[in-house]
Design brief:
The protein is an alpha+beta fold. It has helices at 3-17, 21-26, 45-56, 117-125, 127-133, 137-157; strands spanning 28-35, 42-43, 63-71, 75-86, 91-104, 107-114. It has six helices and six strands; from the N terminus they run ααββαββββααα. Helix 4 packs antiparallel against helix 5.
Amino acid sequence: MNDQNAGLIKSFYAAFARADLDSMERCYHPEVTFGDPVFLELEGRSRVMGMWRMLLSGEGGVAVSVRDVTARRYDGAAHWTARYVFGRTGRPVINEIDALFRFEDGLIVRHHDEFDFRRWSRMALGKPTGLPFGWTSVFRDTIRGRAMRSLEDFMRAG
């Protein structure tokens, strides 16, 4: 176990839980990349932090908890839970997420989150919509496109 990198992961999620964007940003390398099932690939600290700013700006924010943090010299992992209300539908979401990290220069240079898109869509959109459509690639592409447009709009307005 690399205590310094494990501490970096814990610091990131502690800052996230406090909605402390400045402290979150200090955990990231300037050349950080982020990916998840919705935001497939974001490059650079400004875009990655723009996504976190947008997500934390929603009504009610996001409740964050982390567990199972592990880290070695160059990589690490954690499991985290996000609890929030999905803005488009007002439905509560509890998303269980596995995160993988790469480290460079004592900072997070790669952050990849993985979660069950089908499960998320049922919670966020409800069973009539999320159940049948959460399985299709067209639906996933639609959600991804909306998310990227929302991020671009949010960053332009910021």
